[in-house]
């Protein structure tokens, strides 16, 4: 098996060192939250270890998962350069670890005197806002079916392993977890995955890992614009 090239966006060593130098280390614990949608935003976080799930709530109170963040990812960055900032999303810890806690006011002062790092930080924020927008676009334009197809494509870019018979998403997800990525119910995802299996588009092994046998089918049905992998991923 051949692991697909990991093109997820990475921080420069210089920016990472700046964030670490002004941050303080905090332990994070599974099933707790770093922040909730609508809270005052005074801090952002650089992940040292563990996994953090970024999500939003619909007007009906349904959760939609947008990203899974890991070591060296930043969360809470969408509040930078805003007046009276509020967190736009929720950050739930799904695997215990540690984060660097960075005061936003302190970071903004540092970035004002280092234009190079300021531009890099703005690009990071812009790229993640673009990911957020494309995910919502897939849901709004193509409905929950399109959101599922988009999620499968993004998961293949983040966790895909190339095999002779297709691309294995080398991480198991329950149908309930997939439903949260799509803003759908578990029953709907059960039905849609069943249809895709009947058509030979994918298969699911006993551990819950998905093998995508025909990625092009998902892209064509979703009118995929072939966005860069840096944008089209689940990280």
From TrEMBL:
Alphabetized InterPro entries for the sequence: cNMP-bd_dom, cNMP-bd_dom_sf, Env_Response_Regulators, HTH_CRP, RmlC-like_jellyroll, WH-like_DNA-bd_sf, WH_DNA-bd_sf
Start and end residues of each HTH crp-type domain: 142-216
This protein's record includes keyword Transcription regulation: yes
Domain Cyclic nucleotide-binding: 13-86
One function term, GO molecular function aspect: DNA-binding transcription factor activity
Ranges in coiled-coil conformation: none
One Pfam family this sequence matches: HTH_Crp_2
Gene Ontology CC terms, in alphabetical order: cytosol
Keyword terms of this UniProt record: Activator, DNA-binding, Transcription, Transcription regulation
Name of the molecule in the record: Anaerobic regulatory protein
């Amino acid at each position: 098996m051949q692991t697909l090239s990991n093109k997820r966006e990475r921080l420069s060593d210089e920016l990472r060192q700046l964030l670490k130098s002004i941050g303080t280390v905090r332990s994070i614990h599974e099933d707790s939250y770093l922040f909730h949608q609508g809270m005052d935003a005074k801090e952002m976080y650089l992940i040292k270890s563990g996994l953090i799930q970024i999500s939003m709530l619909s007007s009906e109170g349904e959760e939609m998962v947008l990203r899974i963040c890991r070591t060296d990812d930043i969360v809470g960055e969408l509040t930078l350069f805003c007046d009276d900032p509020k967190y736009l999303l929720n950050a739930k810890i799904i695997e215990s670890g540690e984060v660097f806690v960075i005061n936003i006011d302190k970071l903004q002062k540092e970035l004002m005197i280092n234009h190079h790092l300021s531009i890099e930080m703005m690009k990071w924020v812009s790229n993640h806002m673009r990911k957020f927008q494309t995910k919502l676009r897939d849901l709004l334009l193509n409905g929950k079916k399109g959101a599922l197809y988009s999620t499968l494509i993004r998961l293949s870019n983040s966790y895909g392993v190339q095999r002779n018979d297709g691309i294995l998403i080398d991480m198991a997800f329950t149908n309930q977890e997939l439903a949260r990525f799509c803003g759908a119910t578990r029953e709907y995802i059960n039905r849609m995955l069943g249809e895709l299996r009947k058509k030979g588009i994918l298969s699911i092994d006993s551990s819950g890992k998905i093998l995508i046998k025909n990625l092009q089918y998902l892209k064509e049905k979703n009118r995929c614009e072939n966005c860069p992998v840096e944008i089209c991923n689940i990280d």
